[in-house]
């Protein structure tokens, strides 16, 4: 009786938001994979860990395979002489070593990752079962390009079905995730977003379900049908697109109401909050926050608190600094410890005005490569504008949010 052969590609989100829970996923996959290899299957393990970053106006990607994360590995997979050993291994320890080498950073593009995974060099359908196991704590609709990749997502699903690939997906519920349930061979489980995403995943049950499904699935004795490779065109992308999310400046410009998670792949050493404006008006940069029950306020009249320091007062009185250049005030945050939420605000010392007229912006940079811009866009005429908020209520996943809300009195955290 021929042995049961199985090709399993593990598709793993390696973006910033996975940083707090990535080791837990590693540990569970280790406990999952080693006994699976002792079952009555001949298994080839594949790995595709993925993240993304920004480089000017384009997205760039890092994909880690069994053979590493060299920029050429995506394009090589689509060539006629692809080295199978770069993508699959029969040695579970080699798979786990490749997973251990993955760095969490940047953003994600899960539809692209699923497209690449479905193009893996699987054994022919008459000799081996095919499986993709996806793990992400972010909805399919989020990521470096947000909803844009979903325009071709249905084509990706059609390819998965044509190639007779069984899909196991563990990710937050969403409209796009619901599309996965339409696949003829799929088990889709919802997980929480954030650091606790794997707490309610029973990896033992997952192993049992996958083993039963593989055991009863039949080999396909017909030729594989024609299918569309590289739906997003990644086979023709320049290799510079795959230089790695960690090698790019993670530039983001937030619209009002939008948020961006900070890169927490390693502990933050500093956060720089910079207020720029060009028009002749005296704006002042303020950081307003609570430490426990104690409200704090750093501004030109009180330039320093523990871990939060303002450098200078750029405009004085009714003067807005030097003419014809950007004026700038900077606050450096050396630690967010003890800070739940921080408002980044400006007060127009010159008087009431329309903040959108000042060619202003706040830029948040971090030691981990974040470069987040919040334009000053409020059309309201008030004395104060709360431009942004640093939300640290989840210290493993702090966010910057564009508020651009005005008021005529000193703002406090509870209002925003």
What would you say this structure looks like, in words?
The chain has 416 residues and is an alpha+beta fold. The chain folds into 2 domains: 4-247, von Willebrand factor, type A domain (Rossmann fold, 3-Layer(aba) Sandwich); 250-415, Lipoxygenase-1 (Sandwich). 17% of the residues lie in helices and 33% in strands. It is built from 7 helices and 22 strands. The chain has helices at residues 19-37, 73-77, 92-100, 110-118, 153-162, 175-180, 203-216, and strands spanning 4-13, 41-55, 58-64, 88-89, 129-135, 165-171, 186-190, 250-253, 259-261, 271-277, 283-291, 294-298, 304-305, 308-310, 327-333, 339-348, 353-354, 361-366, 370-375, 381-382, 384-391, 399-407. The strands form 4 sheets. Strands 1, 2, 3, 4, 5, 6 and 7 form a 7-stranded mixed beta sheet that branches. It has a 7-stranded mixed beta sheet with strand order 8-19-18-10-15-14-13, with no helix packed on it. A 6-stranded antiparallel beta sheet has the order 9-22-21-16-11-12, with no helix packed on it. α5 (153-162) links the parallel β5 and β6 (165-171). α1 (19-37) runs antiparallel to α3 (92-100). It is elongated and about 80 Å long. The model has no long low-confidence stretch (mean pLDDT 86).
């Amino acid at each position: 009786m021929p042995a049961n052969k199985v090709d399993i590609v593990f598709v793993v989100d390696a973006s910033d938001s996975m940083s707090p829970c990535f080791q837990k996923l590693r540990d569970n996959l280790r406990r999952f994979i080693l006994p699976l290899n002792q079952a009555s299957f001949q298994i080839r393990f594949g790995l595709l860990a993925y993240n993304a970053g920004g480089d000017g106006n384009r997205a760039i990607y890092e994909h880690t395979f069994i053979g590493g994360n060299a920029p050429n590995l995506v394009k090589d997979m689509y060539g006629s002489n692809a080295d199978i050993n770069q993508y699959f291994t029969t040695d579970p320890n080699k798979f786990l070593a490749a997973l251990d080498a993955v760095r969490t950073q940047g953003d994600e593009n899960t539809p692209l990752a699923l497209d690449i995974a479905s193009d893996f060099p699987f054994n022919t359908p008459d000799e081996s079962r095919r499986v993709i196991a996806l793990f992400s704590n972010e909805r399919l609709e989020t990521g470096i390009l947000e909803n844009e990749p979903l325009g071709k997502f249905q084509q990706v699903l059609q390819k998965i079905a044509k190639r007779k690939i069984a899909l196991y997906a563990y990710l937050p519920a969403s409209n796009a995730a619901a599309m996965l349930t339409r696949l003829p061979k799929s088990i889709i489980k919802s997980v929480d977003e954030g650091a606790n995403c794997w707490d309610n995943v029973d990896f033992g049950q997952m192993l049992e379900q996958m083993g039963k499904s593989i055991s009863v699935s039949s080999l396909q004795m017909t030729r594989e049908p024609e299918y569309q490779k590289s739906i997003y065109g990644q086979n023709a992308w320049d290799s510079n697109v795959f230089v790695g999310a960690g090698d790019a400046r993670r530039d983001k410009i937030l619209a009002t109401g939008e948020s961006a998670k900070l890169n927490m792949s390693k502990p933050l050493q500093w956060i720089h909050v910079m207020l720029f404006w060009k028009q002749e008006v005296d704006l002042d940069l303020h950081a307003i926050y609570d430490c426990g029950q104690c409200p704090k306020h750093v501004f030109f009249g009180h330039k320093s608190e523990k871990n939060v320091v303002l450098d200078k007062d750029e405009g004085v009185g009714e003067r807005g600094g030097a003419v014809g250049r950007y004026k700038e005030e900077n606050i450096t945050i050396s630690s967010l410890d003890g800070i739940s939420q921080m408002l980044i605000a400006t007060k127009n010392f010159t008087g009431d005005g329309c903040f959108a007229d000042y060619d202003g912006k706040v830029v948040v940079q971090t030691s981990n490569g974040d470069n987040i811009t919040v334009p000053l866009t409020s059309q309201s005429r008030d004395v104060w504008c709360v431009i942004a908020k640093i939300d640290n209520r989840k210290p493993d996943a702090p966010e910057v949010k564009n508020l651009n809300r005005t008021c005529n009195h000193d703002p406090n955290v509870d209002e925003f």
